[in-house]
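Below sits the subject:

***
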Amino acid sequence: MNLPDTSRRRQTVTTAVGVIDRTVSILDAVKRGARTHAAVVRATGLSRTTAHRMLKSLEAHGMVEYVGGRGYHLGPRLLKLAAASLQEPSLRDIAHPALERLTTATGESSQLFVASIDGRVCVDAVESSSELRTIVPVGEELPIWAGSAGKVFMAAMTSTRAEQLIGASRPITPATPIGDRLRRQVAAARRQGWASSAGERQTGVGSVSAPVHGSRGEIVAVVSISGPTTRIRRVDAKRYAPAVVAAAREIERALGVQHQEDHG
C-alpha cells in the first residue's frame, strides 16, 4: 500500500519584485492549462491589459508561444534554458547517492526539497521497498508551513519572513501546526538542526528533515525521510535524525562544502 501526497493546494506568495511575481504567475497558469487570454486572467487575477501586455512580451522572448487553435503554451526558450542546465551536474545528480544510502539505512522513502516562491518542491526521491510506504512525486510543490522540511526552511529565514509565513499558515489536517505552535516548532528546528512532523501535511504520514548548506552557510536544499506514522512518530524522530543529518552532511561534502572536522 502506498501513501501518496494529497496536499495540492497552493499558497500565493509575493516578493519585492512584482514583475517577476507576475511573470511566474503567468508561466504557472499556462503550464497548468490556461491557454487563452481570458483563462490567464482568471488564473492569475491580473487585469486584462496587464495579462495581454505580459503575454505579448513573454511571446517575444520565446517564453510562451501562441499556437493557432490551441492557445498559449510554454515556449521554446524555456526548453533551451532547461537543456543548458542539464549540461552540468545538478543538485539532484549530486545528492542522489546519499538519498539511496539514506533509504537503505532507514528503510523509509527519502526526498530532496528546494525552496520555491510558493513553498517547496521535491527535486528527487527514492522510494522505500516496504509495501507500506510514502510517495512524493518529483516536481511536486508542497506548502512550506506544513511538514518537517518546511519547518527546516523556515528556521533559516529572517524572522520577518518566517512571521509572514506563520501568519499565512492554515490547517491542512487536524495536526497541522499554525500560529504559536508552528512558531515554537520552527524555533526548535533552528536549535537542534533538524525537524520532525507527524500527520501535519497528510494524515498518517510522518517525516524527519535536515538542512543542506552551501559554501556560505545558506540552505540550498532539505533532505527528508517520510513514512507511515506507525513507523515515524514524533517519539521516533530522535532515532532517525542522526541518519538524516548525516545524509545532509554527505551531500554538502559532495557539493564541496568544507566542514571544520574535515580539517582535523
Notes: The chain has nine helices and ten strands. The domain at 18-85 is CATH 1.10.10.10 (Arc Repressor Mutant, subunit A). Residues 25 and 44 are 6 Å apart (CA to CA). The chain has two domains: 18-85, 91-263.
